[in-house]
Amino acid sequence: MDYITAGESHGPQLTAIVTGVPAGLSISEEQINSDLARRQSGYGRGGRMQIESDKVRVTSGIRFGRTLGTPIALTIENRDWENWSETMSAFGKAPKGLEREVTPRPGHADLVGAMRSNTDDCRNILERASARETAARVAASGIAREFLAELGVEVYSYVVSVGGAAMEEENFLESAPLYAPLDIELSDMRCPCPKATEAMKAEIDQAKLDGESLGGTFRVVARGLIPGIGGYATAGDRLTGRIGGALLSIPAIKGVEFGLGFEAARRPGSQVHDPITLDPKKGFSRASNNCGGLEGGMTNGMPIVITVAMKPIPTLMQPLATVNMDTLEVEQASKERSDVCAVPAAAVVAEGEVAFVLANAYLEAFGCTNMADIKATIKEYRQRLRTMSR
Ligand SMILES: Cc1cc2nc3c(=O)[nH]c(=O)nc-3n(C[C@H](O)[C@H](O)[C@H](O)COP(=O)(O)O)c2cc1C
């Protein structure tokens, strides 16, 4: 399963094409729309979230709610297009009085993108570098999520910290896989702790007053996984690298920790590795989950628990210094309409990226043409694992 997205932030629409999807998978439009709404939610989002209410339109690959095994094309309209149709017109001449973007924002793709593309207008860069693109990713990953859901795998996320405000978790490796996704969704910050939610909102309020922006951390959890998905034999097989790469492909994501993460580097081996147990019901299991569900580049059947760090949003309402590309004078960086904090939204995008990698690993292990065959192969595999632990 693979996807590609296209579309500018202020163009007419975003497009995602998903290939390699098996036939016979049930897809719910409402489910994809609810993921899109989750991506738009979260305290601290910018004005755009009030304008846009993303809805997916499926134009190929699905018939009567089931996949055909052919490329799936998904589009999301940009509702602000009518205000941008001249500035972002695909053809014709630039309108009179068009203001080029010549004061690149530090921390954004603006300047290096312009250098690389040989343009004197950073809008040619920022339109695509904008995280608006992640809406198309969320729609695409909806297909992967439905695939995993049909196989009993659930992927969810929650926000752990924003700026200096953090939720307290005694043993997150035990608690993270036990949260009820509804408790997370009920929080404005997608955080299961009401006290921490309020503290995060207060940080955001203060940041807004100060013309500042904030980053934070969140966790992604995948549960219901079969052991042995992924691979250890070649660099490209290892799920650790594949998931890490997918998460780091999200704009503003700067760190990924698996299980104990960096804390493991501080402990001796006996306090890191998870003893193997034999459970009469579960078969082979682990006494703890410090590795966060991945051993040797493969799932070990325990929940995957990943902690992800997002940097603060680069567009600042009290902008940093930059250099005007026309005059070469020092000026303040430009201000696009912007979020103060987008950690909850990034967490939703991250769920989708993890789902995509896991869906692919399942397809590699159990076939990829149609859901009935895939399920039958998984049943056989599970049966064999049962006999191994008897
Ligand atoms: C969901 C989401 C929303 C974002 N919203 C904004 C925003 O409103 N303004 C902004 O300047 N950056 C925003 N960003 C971050 C930038 O897109 C990102 O920092 C920029 O593209 C530079 O990439 P880099 O941070 O990976 O170097 C957002 C990121 C995500 C994941």
If you had to describe this structure to a student in words, what would you say it looks like?
The chain has 390 residues and is α+β, with helices and mostly antiparallel strands. The chain has one domain (2-388): 4-Layer Sandwich (Chorismate synthase, AroC fold). The chain contains eleven helices and 17 strands. It has a five-stranded antiparallel β-sheet with strand order 8-7-9-15-10. A four-stranded antiparallel β-sheet has the order 1-2-6-3, with helices on one face. The protein has a two-stranded antiparallel ribbon with strand order 4-5. The relative contact order is 0.17. The model has no long low-confidence stretch (mean pLDDT 96). Bound molecules: flavin mononucleotide. Residues 46, 107-109, 129-131, 134, 250-252, 311, 313-315, 338-339, 342, 345-346, 349 line the site of flavin mononucleotide.
